[in-house]
């Protein structure tokens, strides 16, 4: 387990970028954190580390966004609005989770029962007592 503290959006972005530079094909990353905690900023950095230059936005209404221009495909899921796991089956989640790219799943705790056993679990937390831009980022290999 790795715990990193960042004190700005730029530091959170850079941490994501470093992780993206080390990412391997077929990995699944889960991302947990409250609204407004910096999940999208972290993911934008991760995509940059994968050499993806196009804008990265949270796929809140589409469930998954695919990016193919980097050094490997990047599949960005946001399952916040998902009703149940059957919706994931309808979009063929297994092709993404067990494919040739990197999969990032925001709000992964909502689909816990279908997550791969081996994954990186990333949790981002705020602590306003330590400052508005402070983030505690925990990375666990499961």
Automatic annotation (TrEMBL):
GO cellular component entries: cytoplasm
Ribonucleoprotein in keyword set: no
Keywords: ATP-binding, Cytoplasm, Magnesium, Metal-binding, Nucleotide-binding, tRNA processing
Pfam families recorded: TsaE
Any single biological process term in GO: tRNA threonylcarbamoyladenosine modification
Subcellular locations according to the entry: Cytoplasm
InterPro entries, alphabetized: P-loop_NTPase (IPR027417), T6A_TsaE (IPR003442)
GO terms assigned for molecular function: ATP binding; metal ion binding
UniProt KW Metal-binding keyword: yes
Record-stated family: Belongs to the TsaE family.
Protein name: tRNA threonylcarbamoyladenosine biosynthesis protein TsaE
Organism: Lachnobacterium bovis
């Amino acid at each position: 387990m790795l715990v990193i503290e960042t004190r700005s959006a730029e530091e959170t972005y850079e941490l994501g970028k470093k992780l993206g530079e080390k990412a391997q094909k077929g990995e699944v990353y889960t991302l947990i954190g409250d609204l407004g905690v910096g999940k999208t900023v972290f993911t934008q950095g991760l995509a940059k580390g994968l050499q993806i230059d196009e804008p990265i936005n949270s796929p809140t209404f589409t469930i998954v966004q695919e990016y193919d221009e980097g050094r490997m495909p990047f599949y960005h899921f946001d399952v916040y609005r998902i009703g149940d796991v059957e919706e994931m089956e309808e979009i063929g989640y297994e092709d993404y989770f067990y494919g040739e790219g990197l999969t990032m799943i925001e709000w992964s705790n909502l689909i816990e029962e279908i997550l791969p056993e081996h994954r990186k679990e990333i949790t981002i937390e705020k602590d306003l007592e330590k400052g508005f831009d402070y983030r505690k980022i925990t990375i666990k290999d499961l």
